[in-house]
Specification:
heterodimer, A: mainly alpha, 23 helices, 0% strand, globular, B: alpha/beta, four-stranded antiparallel sheet, 36% helix
Chain lengths: 487, 230
C-alpha cells in the first residue's frame, strides 16, 4: 500500500510538466498558500461574519445552516472537479497484489483531495474557536464526527455519482435543477431544508448514540463506492468505450480543406474530456450576465464592455488560449500532410467566429434589460471576431506545452504557461483603453461605435491579417512541434 | 528525388545525425537499419521537415522541403502514433487524409476494399483510433500513408507490431508500389525484411551513414555479422 503511494508521488514529481515549469509551479504554490490562508481566515472569523449577516440568529445555528449549502455545492463541485484516481491502478492489475487492496487505495487516496482540505480548513477553525469553547466536550466530539462523516460521505458518494452520471449527461442538468429548486425553496422559506439540517445536526450532537447514523451513512457510501470500483476494475471498462454519437457533421464537408479541418476540430472538442468539459463550463459562464447586468451597473460602461467582451468570446478565449496545444498529440501529422498553413489557421479563425456569434445570439435576451447591452455586445462581437481571434492565435504560436486530451479540465494546469496568463490582457484590455480614451474626450458612447468599426475593418481585411499570422506560424512551427512531442 | 546536403542535427553539443551527401533516386526502395538511437527517425523527420536541421538542407524534387510545401502533395508518410488523430475512427481518419488529397469517401472505400487483406475488423469498426492495439494503429498509419498514391513513401519501422501475414502483405505491397514507380524509404530493425524488400540499404550508426550498399545475396549475412555483439 505504501509502495503504491510512493509510486503515485513519483508519478506526480516525475511528470515532465512538473519538472519543466518549476516557476509556474512556484507561482501556483504561492497562490495556493494564499488561498488557503484566506480560507482559514474565513473559518476563523466565521462567527463575526455570521453575526454581521444574521444578527438575530445564534452563530452556531447559522453556521450549521450554511453548512447545508456548503455540502450541497460541495457535492456538485466534486462531481465536476474531483478526479477518480481509478485509471492509475491499471498497471497493477496484473501484478500479484490483492485486488481489494488496489480498490481501497483510490478510495483512501481520494481523502487527500484539495476539496477535503478546503472543507477542513473552513470548518476546523470555527470548531476550535466557537464550538469547543461553548459546548461540553461530548457535544463537540459528536458534532465534529458528524460533520466529518458528511465530508466523507460526499467524498465517496462522488465516486458512484460520477460513474453513474458520466453516462447520462442529461441527468446532470436534472440534478442541478433539483438542487437549485431546493435552494430556491429554502431561501424563499417555503421549506426550510437548511433549518431541518441544522436542527438534525445539533440534535445528533446532543445525543451521542445518534452519531451512529452519520457514521453509518459514511461507511455505506464508502462501500457503494468500493463496489462501483470493483465492478469497473477491468481494463475494458477503464477505457472509455463510448459509442459514436457525434453526428457526422457532414454539412462541413462541402467546404473543402477548411471545412475538413473544422470538422475534425469540432470532433476533437466533442470527443475528448478536457475540451468537452470546457465547453460545458462556457455555457455556465453565459449566466454571468445575471451577476453583472444589475440595475446599478447599467450605466457603467466598463462593466458592460467587459461583460459583452466575455459573453461573446468566452469559448474562443477559454478554448482558444490553448490553440495548437490541443492538437499536440497529432501535430506532426498536420505538418507532414497536405495542409496549407493558411487554411489551417483560417479554420480556427472561423471556428472562433462561429462560437462568438453563438455566444452573442444566446446572450441576446440580456438586451431586454437594456438596449445598450445588445448594442455593446454587437460591437464586442465584431471586435472579437475581427481582432481577438487573430491576436489570440498569434499569441498562441508561442504555445509549446503539450496537452493530453484525455484528462479532465478542472484544476488541470497541463499546457498552462505564461502565454496563457498574458494572452488575455491585451485582448481584453484594448476595448477598455479605447473606452477610456473616448471618455477623456467627453464622448464615451462613441467608443462603442469605434470598437465595432475596428472589428468590422479587421473582418474585412481578415485575409491580410491571417497571412501575417501564417508567416508567424511557419516561423514557429518547429519549436511548437518540438514542444508538443514532449510527453 | 531526395537530396540531402551537408545535413546535421545536434541537440546542444550532441550530434545525433550528420550526413554529408546523400541522394535517393527515383524508384529506389531504400532501407535504413541501425540500432536504437542511431538516428534513423531523426533522419526521416528531417526529410519530412518535422524538425529543424542545425545545418544543411533536404531537397525533394530540387525544392527545399523547409521552404516549399510542394513535397506534401506527393509524399506519403507514417513515422509514429503522432501521425494519427486519436479521437477519430480509422474510417474518419482515412477520409480526412483522403479529402486533403481530393479523394471523396467513395474513393476511400474503394481503397479500403483493395487493401482489405491488410487489416482486421477492428479497423472498420466504430472504435476510435486511441482504442486500437499498437499493431492496428500501425496499420491505420500505413494505410493513410499510401492512400493518396504518393510518389515518395516514408515509413518508420512499418513492420513493428504487425502480425506475420500483415508483414508479408506489406512486403509485397511495398515491392508492388515500387514497381509502379514509387520511391520508398523505410527504416527497420528486422534485417531479413529489409534485405528482402529493399534494393539499397543504408546502415546508420551514431548519426553517421557507415554503409550504403545495393542489396545482393550476401547482404543479409553481412548485416547480421555487423550487428552481432562484438
Amino acid at each position: 500500500m505504501i509502495e503504491l503511494l510512493i509510486h503515485q508521488w513519483k508519478e506526480k514529481v516525475r511528470s515532465p510538466y512538473w519538472q519543466k515549469s518549476i516557476w509556474l509551479n512556484i507561482v501556483l504554490g504561492i497562490i495556493g498558500v494564499y488561498v488557503m490562508l484566506n480560507i482559514v481566515f474565513i473559518g476563523f472569523f466565521a462567527d463575526f461574519i455570521l453575526l454581521k449577516v444574521f444578527p438575530d440568529t445564534d452563530v452556531v445555528q447559522s453556521f450549521t445552516r450554511i453548512l447545508f449549502y456548503y455540502f450541497a455545492f460541495d457535492l456538485i463541485f466534486r462531481f465536476f472537479a474531483q478526479q477518480i484516481p481509478a485509471l492509475s491502478v491499471q498497471p497493477y492489475l496484473t501484478l500479484p497484489i490483492p485486488k481489494s487492496k488496489l480498490l481501497h487505495y483510490p478510495l483512501i487516496k481520494s481523502f487527500s483531495s484539495f476539496i477535503n482540505v478546503v472543507a477542513l480548513l473552513l470548518i476546523l477553525p470555527f470548531f476550535g474557536k466557537v464550538i469547543c469553547t461553548t459546548f461540553p466536550p461530548m457535544f463537540c466530539l459528536c458534532w465534529i464526527i458528524t460533520v466529518l462523516s458528511f465530508i466523507a460521505t460526499n467524498n465517496f458518494l462522488n465516486f458512484s455519482l460520477k460513474k453513474y452520471f458520466s453516462k447520462r449527461p442529461l441527468l446532470i442538468l436534472f440534478l442541478l435543477v433539483i438542487v437549485g429548486l431546493i435552494i430556491y425553496l429554502d431561501i424563499n422559506k417555503s421549506v426550510s431544508f437548511s433549518g431541518y439540517f441544522s436542527a438534525d445536526l445539533l440534535s445528533i450532537s446532543r445525543a451521542p448514540f445518534l452519531v451512529v447514523i452519520p457514521l453509518t451513512i459514511a461507511t455505506l457510501s464508502y462501500y457503494i463506492g468500493y463496489n462501483m470500483l470493483k465492478k469497473n476494475a477491468y481494463i475494458e471498462d477503464i477505457q472509455t468505450n463510448q459509442h459514436l454519437n457525434t453526428s457526422s457533421l457532414s454539412f462541413l464537408s462541402h467546404y473543402g480543406e477548411i471545412g475538413n479541418l473544422m470538422r475534425t476540430e469540432i470532433k476533437m472538442i466533442l470527443r475528448n474530456k478536457r475540451p468537452k468539459s470546457l465547453m460545458y463550463v462556457t455555457v455556465i459562464f453565459f449566466a454571468y450576465g445575471f451577476i453583472f447586468y444589475q440595475e446599478k451597473n447599467i450605466n457603467n460602461y466598463v462593466i458592460l464592455i467587459f461583460t459583452g467582451f466575455f459573453l461573446t468570446s468566452i469559448f474562443a478565449i477559454q478554448y482558444g488560449q490553448f490553440s495548437f496545444s490541443w492538437e499536440s498529440s497529432f501535430f506532426d501529422s498536420y505538418l507532414a500532410n497536405k495542409i496549407a498553413p493558411f487554411n489551417y489557421l483560417k479554420s480556427k479563425y472561423l471556428l472562433f467566429a462561429f462560437t462568438s456569434l453563438f455566444g452573442f445570439v444566446v446572450t441576446l435576451p440580456y438586451a431586454l434589460i437594456s438596449y445598450k447591452i445588445g448594442f455593446i455586445n454587437a460591437a464586442m462581437l465584431l471586435y472579437n471576431i475581427g481582432i481577438s481571434s487573430v491576436v489570440l492565435l498569434y499569441i498562441c504560436t508561442w504555445n509549446t506545452s503539450r496537452i493530453d486530451l484525455g484528462r479532465s479540465q478542472f484544476m488541470n494546469y497541463q499546457g498552462t504557461g505564461v502565454t496563457q496568463f498574458l494572452s488575455i490582457i491585451p485582448i481584453a484590455g484594448f476595448p477598455i483603453i479605447v473606452y477610456l480614451l473616448f471618455k477623456y474626450f467627453g464622448v464615451p458612447e462613441y467608443s462603442i461605435y469605434a470598437l465595432g468599426l475596428i472589428g468590422l475593418i479587421a473582418i474585412v481585411f481578415n485575409k491580410y491579417m491571417l497571412q501575417l499570422l501564417t508567416r508567424q506560424f511557419i516561423k514557429r512551427r518547429y519549436k511548437m512541434a518540438l514542444g508538443f512531442r514532449q510527453i | 528525388m531526395i537530396q540531402i546536403n551537408n545535413l546535421k542535427k545536434a541537440y546542444g553539443k550532441k550530434v545525433v545525425l550528420s550526413i554529408d551527401d546523400l541522394t535517393i533516386n527515383e524508384r529506389e526502395l531504400v532501407g535504413i537499419v541501425g540500432n536504437n538511437g542511431a538516428g534513423k527517425t531523426t533522419m526521416l523527420s528531417l526529410i519530412l521537415d518535422l524538425i529543424e536541421p542545425s545545418r544543411g538542407s533536404v531537397k525533394s524534387k530540387d525544392q527545399l522541403v523547409s521552404k516549399v510545401d510542394d513535397w506534401k502533395n506527393y509524399t506519403g508518410s507514417y513515422l509514429n502514433e503522432g501521425f494519427l488523430i486519436p479521437f477519430l475512427t480509422p474510417q474518419e481518419f482515412l477520409e480526412f487524409i483522403g479529402k486533403l488529397h481530393g479523394l471523396n469517401s467513395k474513393d476511400v472505400k474503394e481503397f479500403m476494399n483493395e487493401n482489405a487483406a491488410f487489416y482486421a475488423e477492428d479497423i472498420t469498426s466504430k472504435k476510435y483510433i486511441r482504442e486500437l492495439s499498437a499493431g492496428n494503429k500501425n496499420k491505420v498509419g500505413i494505410l493513410a500513408s499510401i492512400l493518396s498514391a504518393p510518389e515518395i513513401l516514408i515509413l518508420d519501422e512499418p513492420f513493428s507490431n504487425l502480425d506475420p501475414s500483415s508483414q508479408s502483405w506489406l512486403k509485397s505491397k511495398l515491392k508492388k508500389l515500387n514497381n509502379e514507380g514509387v520511391t520508398i524509404l523505410i527504416s527497420s530493425h528486422d534485417l531479413k525484411h529489409v534485405t528482402d524488400v529493399c534494393n539499397r540499404i543504408l546502415l546508420i550508426e551514431n548519426g553517421l551513414i557507415v554503409k550504403d550498399k545495393n542489396t545482393n545475396a550476401e547482404t543479409l549475412e553481412e548485416l547480421e555479422n555487423y550487428f552481432n555483439v562484438r
